[in-house]
Amino acid sequence: MATNFNNGDSLFNFVVKDGNGVKGLVDLGLTEVPCRYIQPPHHRINNQQVAGSLENVTIDLSELDGPNHDQVVRSIVHASETLGFFQVVNHGVPLKLLDSLKLAAHEFFGQPAEKKLVYLNGVSPSPLVKYGTSFVPYIEKVLEWKDYISMTYTNDADAHEFWPNDLTEVALEYIKTSSEMVQKLLQTLIGNLGVKVDDSRFHELTGRTLVNMNFYPPCPNPDLTVGVGRHSDAGMLTVLLQDGIGGLYVKKGESADSPGDDEVWIEIPPVHGALVINIGDALQILSNGRYISAEHRVRTTDIESRVSVPIFNAPLPEAKIGPFAEVVARDGVARYKEVTFEEYTKSYLKKTLDGKKSLEFASVI
């Protein structure tokens, strides 16, 4: 049965339309990757391009309120200006909760397909919950080796009504226990730009929250596939929980705009108890390019299933994002135009993942 999935229509219907996802393929005993998942060579993760790991960029956030405050701020700013990624420990999110999140993700995706189909993208009774596979499978020529469920937070009542019952409590606690950390990090980064924003504006820039659970089943040919293609996140700041398997890579520097042998990718290694933080496009735009929303992508593995749990902290749809006036005055030029975040995300979601090309929508130079 699995060999028939080299017929594009039958595979697409099984994986996407019928909601079986990549997990469904693996459960059939797949021994080789169907053609629809084989990435062109320039999109694969080449071992020769990987330059070690980012072991030294782990920041102890408990010191942000202590005598080492200035040093911690410098570390956060430097990482945001040079790579767009760093890891944090002593962040205020209970370590027991992190273990519970990983377990909940495995249990959700381990359910029979009919249990997950309730939330299938296009079928789900609520726009707050979306279960699916890959990124935008209806326009992608090559699919990603990933299934996911996405839950938008509006308030606790909506979460309890619409989110999957077995994920609600753990996901809500993850959002709530990380919110103070997110606020501190964003206030630190915005303040470092010499910008002051009032509570109303800060809420505009951070008021939309989504929590995803991503599932990467073992892949029979990991060198031919990707879990997530090269991209930057659209929002302000992403908080990511990795499991212990690894596979997250970030591109070092922005000088190479097209794929090539000169690219260097750095692994963001799993650190027990740590959360990965990365800068999003909206913050790059607001900072007039000072902070970097670095490209990142995810490798597949043939060892065992991998999960990750990101929280995307983003502006409200109607919020206007453009370079802060104070930064433009200092730089002497605005590198981005002002757009609403809704306009930006509509453009972002129209395309397949392709590095940082999403930023072209707001770029003026």
Automatic annotation (TrEMBL):
Membrane-spanning ranges: none
UniProt KW Oxidoreductase keyword: yes
A Gene Ontology molecular function term of the record: metal ion binding
PROSITE patterns recorded: FE2OG_OXY
Catalytic activity: (E)-feruloyl-CoA + 2-oxoglutarate + O2 = (E)-6-hydroxyferuloyl-CoA + succinate + CO2
Keyword Oxidoreductase recorded: yes
Enzyme class of the recorded protein, top EC level: oxidoreductase
Pfam families, sorted: 2OG-FeII_Oxy (PF03171), DIOX_N (PF14226)
Name under which the protein is recorded: feruloyl-CoA 6-hydroxylase
Organism: Deinandra increscens subsp. villosa
